[in-house]
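User: Please run a holo structure prediction.
Assistant: Happy to. Please share the sequence and the ligand.
User: Here you go; the ligand is alpha-D-glucopyranose.
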Amino acid sequence: MEKRSLVGLILGALLMAGTGGAAAAEITITCGVAGTEFDLCKSGAEAWAKKTGNTIRALRNVEDASELYGLFQQQLTSKSGEVDVYMLNNIWPGALAGHFIDLKPYTKGSEAEHYPNVLADYLVDGKLVGLPWYNDVGVLYYRKDLLEKYGKQVPKTWEELTQTAQSIMDAEHAAGNDKLWGYVFQGKAYEGLSCNAIEWIDAFGGGTVIDRKGKITVNNANAAKALSLAASWVGKISPEGVLGYAEEETRGIFQTGNAVFLRNWPYVWALASSDDSPIKGKFGVAALPRGDVEGGKPTGNIGGWGLGVSEYSGNKELAVDLVLYLTGAAEQKRRAISNSFLPTRPALFEDADILKAVPLFASIGPIVQNGVALPSTVTGAKYNQVSAAFWESVHSVLEGSETPEDALPELEATLSKIGRGGW
Ligand code: GLC
């Protein structure tokens, strides 16, 4: 007994020394779960804990970004102090700003090391609600070997993608490869579908649902064209199951060799390139196609995540220190090299180690520059309602229960109700 408390005393003193006098603490952080993301998040946080003499409790997020938003919102609204450091999707700060501390007093201006447009997502009325952790952009993964086998090009338009997917599927099925699908994407009714659908619509020059000034623009002919093409995929080049798929289901199909094309985020690159991946060396990445209409353009949704410190944390200073560490250059570099997470720091795009490990990053610049944002900045606290109305409406078109011509005016009416009184 006595021996143990002596050891405890010595340990405690050592830990205090490590944190410059503050008592050692357990810091709780939420971590994503796509692929091997959880281990990466946990090991990063634990490296900080070791350095500072603290301990980490890493909590697993649910995979679905919308469900996660609901859980976090509930927890924060009840002022729970259970979590110190939250992952923040780049579309959330407008709604959740009140629950997070301002990081500005702690950063000493270092936030300027991030891309200004990425940082802007975490600035709400001058308050720095979070620091950018990684960036995301929707990209097209394609099977290089299959395109070569059938003498096809990487599609530049969605129409071309539709035809190429169908013809390769038909030929492979005829040859006995009957598990192969043409195109997989995130078609479940959740935030990920809003990401896909804004890409289709923007690619057809159909706008961004709500423009920067707050005007609802989604009810237009180009948006209808985009959605009717997407609806034509379901049950043909895409499995019916796509209506229930989020990121990981679609990665699973592509990575096991069972799809010609996949829409997903950069994290897939590292996983699909790993030694145990059946498609290692057989795939490429390109910008998502444009719509074959005037004003059509290649585009990809800009997603991404930051880290923020809860207003209800009992250990704010240590939590801030953890956030600064995880969003810092060394940790972003480690995450880029091992799991192809896109850094939010321009300097890292000139880092030779990163470019060697993830050749994709050398060509991703223009894809990010052509990216499209969901209308979260302009709709602020109402964004989640807006997005839910959007994905529900798109989902009903994909499942064939509504035509775009019926769904889009209805969506416009719903959005104007949500926006009544201003965004
Ligand atoms: C990715 C993106 C995020 C998006 C989510 C949708 O995690 O980074 O921005 O909301 O996917 O599923």
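The domain at 139-300+375-418 is CATH 3.40.190.10 (D-Maltodextrin-Binding Protein; domain 2).
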